[in-house]
Amino acid sequence: MFDAVGGQPPAAQPSSAVPPSSAVPSDSAAPGDSGAGRRRPTRAELLAAYDTAVPDLVAPRTTVLLCGINPSLESGATGFHFGTPSNRLWPVLHLAGFTPRRLHPSETGELTSRGISITNLVNRSTARADEISDDEVRAGVTRLTELVERISPRWVAFLGLAAYRVGFGRRRAQVGRQPETLGPAGIWLLPNPSGLNAHYQLPDLVRVYGELREAAYPDG
User: Fold this and answer.
1) For residue 55, what is the DSSP state?
2) What angle do CA 152, 159, 194 make, to 5 degrees?
3) Are 89 and 68 contacting, i.e. CB atoms less than 8 angstroms apart?
4) Would the pLDDT of 156 be above 70?
5) Which phi and psi (to 5°) does residue 70 adopt?
6) Structure confidence at residue 218 (pLDDT)
7) What does pTM read for this prediction?
8) d(CA 74, CA 46)
9) 13-52 burial, b for 16+ CB within 10 Å, e for fewer?
10) CA separation (Å) from 192 to 21, 33, 110, 184?
11) Average model confidence (pLDDT) for the chain?
12) How far is Cα 173 from Cα 130, in angstroms, rounded to an integer?
């Protein structure tokens, strides 16, 4: 899945990229939670965000770790995962029951308070997912495994079939719960919420994301 991100700390520059191992704990100050993260990046800021890393968003206790392919330029410029506010992830999380309302990408505290963390297989911002090589995706599995072992989520949800199939060598993996685990976590494969994924319309996304929500939060 291609993580298209937005919000607004100052625009990140490639020379000051956050190391891939860094993480933003949920109790740190989140710029968008105070309403500061709503301005969209300029074209110059987006271009300057190429190859910028985005810190992992880590909840105090993680129930579901969402894993994208890599950050978009808007994510790199703002520091917020799935930072384009129009990304379908935000209405899907709401309609599938993960959040009580549609969130803005900058509202990180609302996510982490519900046990939702976010990372990417490749922590390098690009304009398009096809700028990421299969070798980068496979190499990202090591970093992801280390994160999973550290934060012990109940579920790791991969948002995009192709990246999971490449990274883990599961060429025929289909949407839904997978038979294998990643460390202590169960694995769930979900469609990319990007609007470019024409195979899944909003009701379809809500249905399959809702299946994970029911498994992860059986008490509602």
Assistant:
1) P
2) 145
3) no
4) yes
5) -160, 160
6) 93
7) 0.83
8) 6
9) eeeebbebeebbebeeebbbeeeebeeebeeebbebbbbb
10) 24, 25, 22, 24
11) 86
12) 20
Residue recorded with tokens 């803005």: 104
Quote the pLDDT of residue 216.
97
Unique residue bearing structure tokens 């249905």: 207
Q: Could you give the CA distance from residue 126 to residue 109 in angstroms, rounded to a whole number?
A: 25
Query: Of the candidates 113, 88, 130, 152, which has an alpha carbon nearest to the alpha carbon of residue 25?
Result: 113
Question: Does the pLDDT of residue 81 top 90, yes or no?
Answer: yes
214 pLDDT band, cuts 50/70/90, is: very high
Spatial distance between the Cα atoms of 3 and 12, rounded to a whole number of angstroms: 17
- In this predicted structure, the answer to whether residue 5 has a pLDDT above a threshold of 80 is no
User: Quick check: 154 pLDDT over 50?
Assistant: yes
Instruction: Name the H helices within the chain.
Output: 43-48, 73-78, 89-95, 108-112, 134-151, 161-168, 202-216
Mean per-residue pLDDT for 73-89? Answer: 95
* CB environment 173-197: b (16+ within 10 A), e (fewer): bebeebeeebeebbbbbbbbbbeeb
CA neighbor of 116 nearest in space, from 87, 163, 155: 155
CA dihedral 186, 172, 90, 143 (to 10 degrees): 60
What the block records as the tokens of 194 is: 């990007």
Range with the poorest average pLDDT among 19-23, 30-34, 206-210: 19-23
